[in-house]
Amino acid sequence: MALTDSLLSLVIFLPLVAAFILMFILRGEDAAAQHNAKVLALVATIANFVASIFILTSFDKNNTGFQLVETHEWLAGLQYKVGVDGISVLFVMLTTFLMPIVIGACWKVEHRVKEYMIAFLVLESLMIAVFCALDMILFYVVFEAGLIPMFLIIGIWGGKDRIYASFKFFLYTLLGSVLMLVAMLFMWWDAGTTDIPTLLNTHTFDSADFTILGITIVGGVQTLLFLAFFASFAVKMPMWPVHTWLPDAHVQAPTAGSVVLAAVLLKMGGYGFLRFSLPMFPEASAILADFVMTLSVIAIIYTSLVAMMQEDMKKLIAYSSVAHMGFVTMGIFAMNQQGIDGAIFQMISHGFISGALFLGVGVIYDRMHTRDIDAYGGLVVRMPVYALVFMLFTMANVGLPGTSGFVGEFLTLVGAFQANTWVAFGATTGVILSAAYALWLYRRVVFGDLIKESLKSIADMDTREKLMMAPLIVMTILLGVYPALVLDLIGPAVSNLLDNVATAQGVVETAAPVVSH
């Protein structure tokens, strides 16, 4: 059996194996046992990243179908089926790339260390499984199961209001997905299968208008299914106005939890739109595209304005994440090559940049135990390396040319301009606002005179912190100057997605008069 025959399963289950070893084999709660738990988790995540590189080297970017597919019997009538295409493969790589950095950010944790490592290892397996799942019910199971370790990470190792934040996170995201489960069960009944490739390629859901309780449902069943999935993915992104769980979760989560939440978990919503909403409900996507893009522009402008009013660094960056996810949904529902290319690029780029920003907040929080912006000022005097690194990621967050942040925002704006010029105009004001709040944050924290006594002995970044930031710096600059690394990989898959959507819309439009007649 060739290595590629089970490569995806290896990458999915390797962190789970490490978690099993931590849970049942490594014993003890002393300092040595805690250190061993951290080392095992770090080695496992690095090994998983190395294994995932073979996924990338085995991937044929010109093949627009699913690759490295594995199928095994799972439950009655259901399959464990995994595979990757040009849209999902980079999300797998993003996850495995970031997890060793996340474990590095946990190095100073001393409370229930073994359980902390287990939570992150289980979470990694579930996140990778989400991006690889090719069975609809399998996708739902791992999509929802990922809530559990994140709920525990916030609820046990979070800040003083961690219980409130963890329950709010759990309930928002779980309740948002209930309608998606109902829709999936209907789709299973209607199509007779839960196989995602089959649903994408051979089945079309009815889009004929119908009336219920005096209300005409334009787009028919497709619209209802779209809205059910939208309820889940909009909360996960999150989109305005269902974004309020995110700032609380970020503020209360430990640094490593914030990195995973911003860099990977939010991307599941955007991935869901690309895997389900656009290709399976193309007519409904076209009908509701303006609605989604309007919500996206509101999110970009409103959350940018809210970010400008924050006094907590984490909360400011959290609102910034909502604004940047607004660019993602805007690009996806522009439904053209530049828009979707930009949306995927923005998600990958945001993973590096937001992760680095939360790590940056964690660096000074570990020293001063406060995230209040007013508690800082003049850090450049004592922390020149930190000032330089934080400046790079602040500029990348703004969208400075030469950084990956620019490419994603620019492409989504180009795509939006082709679809709706007013949407593009509104989103562009968000770019200006992002520069305002990001530079305001940087000036108050880093520049100015060092007058606070508590800051006069603060130490610059140590070797561990520099090693955590280094890969993120490399990727942010590399993708900024050579975006083809991502765009060449995703381009054929996006083009194929758009062709399939256009074909499905054409079939539906041709069939619609006959159905209505």
Automatic annotation (TrEMBL):
Belongs to the complex I subunit 4 family. One of its GO terms (molecular function) is NADH dehydrogenase activity. Residues 133-432 form the NADH:quinone oxidoreductase/Mrp antiporter transmembrane domain. The keyword Phosphoprotein does not apply. InterPro entries: NADH_Q_OxRdtase_chainM/4, NADH_UbQ_OxRdtase, ND/Mrp_TM. This is NADH-quinone oxidoreductase subunit M. The chain crosses the membrane at residues 6-27, 39-59, 87-106, 113-131, 137-157, 169-190, 210-235, 256-274, 286-309, 316-335, 347-365, 385-402, 422-442, 467-490. It comes from Paramylibacter kogurei. The keyword Transmembrane applies. It is a multi-pass membrane protein. Keywords: Membrane, Transmembrane, Transmembrane helix. NDH-1 shuttles electrons from NADH, via FMN and iron-sulfur (Fe-S) centers, to quinones in the respiratory chain. The immediate electron acceptor for the enzyme in this species is believed to be ubiquinone. Couples the redox reaction to proton translocation (for every two electrons transferred, four hydrogen ions are translocated across the cytoplasmic membrane), and thus conserves the redox energy in a proton gradient. It holds the Pfam family Proton_antipo_M. It is found in: Endomembrane system; Membrane.
